[in-house]
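Input record, target 12 of the design panel.
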């Protein structure tokens, strides 16, 4: 193997390793759930928010719920043990599905941005996101799909 081939092969391997590590890292921070559909809403186990239990409990800041019964996913932000928001991931501008990253929901269509409460941070969208009322139980969240707040 000559020097050029060695460098080329080594660089390709390094890029592959770096890409794989980045992909694994992003999967670790993104959490999905399907929840359980009931007559009036969706039940999401609180344990789905747990990201690590050792040495202490750690939680995901948000969870994306995808269910066949929903046209768009719902993003649930966890503020603390008792406070959550459930946001419909449908852009209020023209209905594109939003993407979530950290504390922002962004629209790939025209660039609108929304915060963790669903308020518009950047247009062209002018209206807040649809928010579902939810109640916090001992082990689960209940998202009421009949209403919006
Ligand atoms: S559809 Fe989202 S900004 Fe236009």
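The sequence produced for target 12 reads:
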């Amino acid at each position: 193997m000559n020097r050029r081939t060695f460098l080329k092969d080594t660089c390709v391997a390094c890029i592959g390793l770096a890409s794989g590590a980045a992909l694994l890292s992003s999967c670790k921070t993104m959490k999905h759930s399907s929840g359980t559909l009931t007559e009036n809403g969706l039940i999401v186990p609180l344990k789905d928010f747990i990201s690590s239990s050792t040495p202490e409990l750690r939680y995901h800041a948000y969870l994306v719920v995808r269910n066949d019964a929903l046209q768009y996913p719902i993003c649930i932000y966890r503020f603390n043990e008792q406070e959550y928001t459930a946001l419909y991931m449908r852009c209020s501008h023209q209905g594109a599905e939003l993407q979530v990253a950290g504390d922002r929901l962004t629209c790939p269509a025209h660039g609108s941005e929304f915060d963790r409460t669903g308020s518009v941070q950047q247009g062209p969208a002018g209206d807040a996101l649809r928010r579902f009322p939810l109640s916090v139980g001992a082990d689960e969240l209940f998202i009421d799909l009949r209403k919006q707040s």
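The helical segments are 3-29.
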